[in-house]
Design goal:
This protein is of the alpha/beta class. The chain contains 12 helices and 13 strands. The protein has 2 domains: 127 residues, 3-Layer(aba) Sandwich (Rossmann fold); 195 residues, Rossmann fold, CATH 3.40.50. Helices cover 34% and strands 16% of the residues. It has a 6-stranded parallel beta sheet, sandwiched between helices. Strands 2-1-3-4-5 form a 5-stranded parallel beta sheet, with helices on both faces. The protein has a two-stranded antiparallel sheet with strand order 10-11.
Length: 346
Amino acid sequence: MNAPLGRLADSLTLPQPYLLFLGDTTEAGYAKTAFGLADWAADRCVGEWSAPGCTVSTGLPRLSPADARAAGARSLVIGVANQGGVIGDTWVAVLVDAMEAGLDIVSGLHTRLTSVPALVEAARRTGRRLIDVRTPPPTIPIGNGRKRSGKRLLTVGTDCALGKKYTALALHRAFRERGIDADFRATGQTGIMIAGGGVPMDAVVSDFEAGAAEMLSPDAPDDHWDLIEGQGSIFNPAYAAVSLGLLHGSQPDVFVVCHDPTRKVILGMENFALPSIEEVIDLTVRLGSRTNPAIRCGGVSLNTSSFDADGAEALMAAERDRLGLPVADPIRGGPGFAALVDAILA
């Protein structure tokens, strides 16, 4: 799917198939790694498992670590992307059980698996591996702002966990179906697990964010597109630094705004109202033009998973009229999504 990305891509030979671990999650937005793998790498997932208290499911078969190993699984993937990227105390016993059943542990959290003594001891005793995916390349330059050849698209959002990765993946698939030379460029733990390479932008030291984005999407032929997975939101009080560094370093020619119309406040920060689509377009153009004066908005990606088909289409039609831009749900596809692709390529 992707052009090689040096040592990071070479190091990501993950043991597959996966058993997806949902922790004790009660909010689907915090299980986006599990949902992303279930939706985009289903052929590599045998089932799911969780800790007590979990109320979220991907819909995959529920299998214990022992049953998953018998079904062919080779690793348990922590499918949670919670605030702070921490390993829950109630998870440890489950992860130890998984190693005792013969599974390696794969994690994309900020907290290193090797920082938990009980996991280190279980790995030593069972001979299983603790694999941390959220590891940036060892040598990242600072950004230089030099204009690079090729074309780039960045997905940006009104908030976290509302469709930036899914939109970039769907656009990548659509571009390839049209015969367009394109690569999906992963910037988060789930995308990296799907693509087999990328840069975990939120694990990069802030001074090197723009440089990491430049390295992620290097010079390319003039007709080549890099479809770059966005992170966070420039309006998010916690994660705006990552989003801005990615915007400046990506130098996108086109961006697509991703939005969940049912969300009213920033996820996990109820005192902050969600910005409007228009605010995101305006600020993205103003900030992004620093490194690419020709930046433009190609359209809007709506997450309409909470609507039925008729309701989703009515909402998208109303937003097209209101914004004067293509609006589509990439997962639903259809003529609206085709129009979005047309506008991006125009």
